[in-house]
Amino acid sequence: MTRRCVFVLTCMLVIACVRESAPPPARPVTPPAPAPRAVVEPLPEGAGCYDIQWQAKKPLPNYGVALPHAIELTAMPAEQPANAFLIRSRDSVNEHLFAQWQRTAASRLELTWSTGFVGFVISIPSEFKNGAEDGVAQTFADVPEPGEKAKVRIVRVRCDAPGPS
Asked: In the chain, how many domains are there?
């Protein structure tokens, strides 16, 4: 009987040790909600709503992502660079991961859309004479390749106006 007791006690000890050393059950972890970005006051020059008129039927390769046609240049700061702001789509087709704009030292607006691997930049004068300006869009990629260019016209519109159809 003592052998049986020793065996039972040994089994209980092994079970207790295994239970103690087992990792705790996994719990779902939800990341904290991102902090809302504050809007810069006063509004940066160039902020507002615009329609993009591409001058060619197929202006740029879409890389599987649709080109925007109605946008809002917001006053919400982008994460990088420090002087850039976010672009919001007004026609619900902007699928680019990154969309931001900034005013350059040469009095131009540079609007950038990127997936993180490929994208395009629109460069236009910031004056908007008669409510519209002509500019150039150019593609870029994270691999060395020549970029494609397309002519574009940016028209300033009221933000409560519907996007182009």
From this structure: 1
> Whose structure tokens read 């970029």?
147
- Position 124 scores a pLDDT of 92
Question: DSSP per residue over 62-89, as a string?
Answer: -TTSPPPSEEEEEEEEPSSSTT-EEEEE
Provide the domain limits for residue 57. 48-157
Residue 72 near residue 64, CB atoms below 8 Å: no
Let me know if residue 117 belongs to a domain: yes
- Enumerate the H helices of the chain as residue ranges: 2-21
> What is the mean predicted confidence (pLDDT) over 21-33?
63
CA atoms in the 13 A half-sphere facing the CB of 148: 11
pLDDT, tens digit, 9 for 90 and up, residues 110-127: 999 888 888 889 999 888
d(CA 54, CA 47): 20
Whether residue 124 is contained in a domain is answered as yes
| Structure-model confidence comparison of residues 158 and 38, the more confident one | 158
The answer as to whether 53 is a domain residue is: yes
Structure tokens at 108: 């131009």
Kindly state whether residue 27 falls inside one of the protein's structural domains.
Answer: no
Q: pLDDT at position 36, please?
A: 60
